[in-house]
Amino acid sequence: IAADTLRAQLDRHPQTEIGGFWHKQIYPHQMWLDGLYMGGPFLAQYAATFGRPEDFDLVVRWFVNMEKVSRDPESGLLYHGWDESRQQRWADPVTGQSSHFWGRGMGWYGMALVDVLDFIPEDHPGRDSILAIVRRMAGAIVRVQDEETGVWYQVLDQGDREGNFLEGSVSAMFSCFLLKAINKGYIDRNEYEEAAVRAYDGMVEHLVSTRENGTIVISPVCQVGGLGGNPYRDGSYEYYINERQRDNDPKATGPFIMAGIQYDMLME
User: Fold this and answer.
1) Residue 263 in 3-state DSSP?
2) In the annotation, is 34 catalytic?
3) pTM of structure
4) Percent of the chain having pLDDT more than 70?
């Protein structure tokens, strides 16, 4: 009953004209990278569990269109959000894209990609499109991986800029994404194992610490990140680097545990 209720909500939830759910109804005509983790894996698992092949088509279209409207052709990185109406102040008036590559936004999208592949059938005509996105994304994020630490910055491509910082949730999510993609055979192990292991080990060394009482701390972690709303979030560099931070935010601890499971599987 609970799963059916959630699925029925998606039937009522608005979509963009090109295909893909609005981030929320309070953000009309907008798709954000993080929104695909909110609904994508659930919808794919629902389709597999209850025999709804048409939902696989919906999932594939959503993911493919998100990459299509957010991908920067030069770097391969994905802008945080896209406004189909081009009405938001944060949106480029021509492309509709926001102006920066927010780490955790891409992290959510990457984890969603490898999770929906758990359910999309091998013979589904859209599966290869999802695999191609996984491979493009893996290449793009490794190119901006910090050489010294192996982890990632809050604003992915501006590590040398004042105020930017190595951030816990994106580093955990990218670690999980790369490790799972290797374990599942979606990306080449010989090409990506070093980067994936450096990512997880780098997080343990640089972003995880132990307090005197023995508790584990992941820090720093960006607490929230968004576009528009009230107060208005303009998607600028200054916005992202000045968002609140906190220790052990679950958006870092959960992916770190998931990454650890994939790390152990790789090392077996």
Assistant:
1) helix
2) yes
3) 0.97
4) 100
